[in-house]
Amino acid sequence: MLMTKRMKIIGYTIAGVLLFLALLFLAFSLSFRRPCRKTVQQYALDPALAFSVMKAESGFSEDAVSNAGAVGLMQLMPSTAQFVCERNQISFEAERLRDGDYNVMLGCIYLNYLSSRFTDTKTTLAAYNAGEGVVSSWLKNTDYSEDGVHLKYIPYEETRNYIKKVLKYQKIYAIFD
Description:
The chain is built from 8 helices and no strands. The relative contact order is 0.11. The protein is mainly alpha-helical.
């Protein structure tokens, strides 16, 4: 009788742990989605980084529009999207910026461009958030950069927080890739 009671307790404990793990996996899957996966795989140099930017920028909402006018999953400014299109001989269609695959394609191409321009990931993310020109000026200022490549200090609190958030997400995506 005592053994049967123990077996039931062990069974319930195992079932509880398995249920907890299943719920944890479900919560992770919902929180760290991978929208437009084929587009990301085709255009992103680092898919984990691209998904992390998407999560931080829009929370995966294709309809997201910021107060500044950034649009879509990767929160592209229309002027940035147009720059990417002109630079890559892609037809610029402002009305498609809320289309997930179009937005992600342009966002990944832009992120790749910034990665080639700024070799440090933190600097690349700063440029994605604060703007390429702003970050270029920071790199020339010895208060913000000692070597012109890495930022030792980022004057925008929003950008500092953004970088931390994206890098945290990137680690999580990389683990479960």
